[in-house]
Amino acid sequence: MSTKPASPVFEMLAEELKDFLKTTVDAETVERIVDERIAKAKLPRPIEVRMGETVIGKLEERAHYLFDRLMDLVNEGHGNILMAGPAGSGKTTLAKNLAQALGLEFGFISLSAGISETHLFGRVLPQADGCWQYRPSRFVEIYEHGGVFLLDEIDAADPNVMVAINAALANGMLANPNGQLHERHEKTYILAAANTWGRGGDHQYVGRNALDAATLDRFVLSTLHVDYDRDLESDLALASLPSEQAEPLLEWVNEVREKIVRNKIRRVASTRLIVNAIAALKAGRDLTDIQARYFLDWSADEKAKVCA
After folding, report:
1. What is the dihedral of CA 26, 27, 31, 34, to 10 degrees?
2. DSSP code, position 228
3. Phi/psi of residue 106, each to 5°?
């Protein structure tokens, strides 16, 4: 219990609530409840886009357009959620927003080929006295005590690591290298992010692994397709640039995206392209220069397919 003196406002509210609730309510309790409501009301956080130390765009009180759908899955009772979508579409942002909205700790790991089970489940390390002691990983801490953990690039993970992850997702417990069991907390939410649907590489993400049926079954009816948030991109561009610069930029990027998909070109035109283009335009460059730089390493055939 806090020892700081309560605000006169909360003292007054406490007195008024006594008659309404027919019971004693102290001012500190009222203040705690108000603080909790305010904390929840502050989400989603304002979006601020930076290039180094320079703020190039800012939007107040804005979340990814799929945030409500992600919350719907959580409210249905899903603790394992798969987010599939192109690079730079906001999957990590969605996971962070979920942790903030729920008031929980956040952690993540990118499951590249060099990630082993010890990165996920901790390791036994020698101590100064010669003894060996188990050190839990961030994943184990969140798994056992609650929080949101993002398994990024799950379709690039080593298959042996995925077997261990599957057991943790399905069984409600995991074993550390000492054999000690850790039970999954009721408020542990494990999100997985992938660029594919988990059925192997495609024309853009050729090196991605196929996830086995056991893995995909962990996310049955809890898979979310995450695409670029075009409304957010539009708002950001229009908040950062004059409309005569923002509108041609957005039109060009959206046209390039459609042609990339239609012609199955191994290229990406993500939200990062818009963010970097905004910075370039604000620095005095023009759209023609930005287009030339974007297509710099494209082949003649690729350029022809998008009419570059």
Report:
1. 70
2. -
3. -125, 140
The pLDDT of residue 249: 98
When pLDDT is cut at 50, 70 and 90, the band that residue 308 belongs to is: confident
C-alpha span between 247 and 233 (Å, rounded):
11
What tens digit of pLDDT does each residue of 56-85 get?
555 455 678 899 999 999 999 999 999 999
Contacts of 74 (CB under 8 A, 6+ apart): 81, 98, 102, 189
Question: What pLDDT digit, counting tens, does each position of 202-230 carry?
Answer: 666 766 878 888 889 999 999 999 999 99
Question: Helices 271-282 and 287-294 meet at what angle, rounded to 10?
Answer: 140
Q: Which class does domain 60-225 fall in?
A: alpha beta
Are 240 and 48 a contacting pair, CB within 8 Å?
Answer: no
Name the maximum alpha-carbon separation found in the chain.
79
Q: What are the pLDDT digits (tens) for 108-157?
A: 999 987 898 889 999 888 887 778 888 999 999 999 999 999 999 999 99
Alpha helices, DSSP H, located in 124-242: 138-145, 159-171, 213-217, 230-240
The first and second tokens of residue 16, run together, are: 């008024």
Q: Do 200 and 215 form a contact (C-beta atoms < 8 A)? A: no
All CATH 3.40.50.300 domain ranges in the chain, comma separated: 60-225
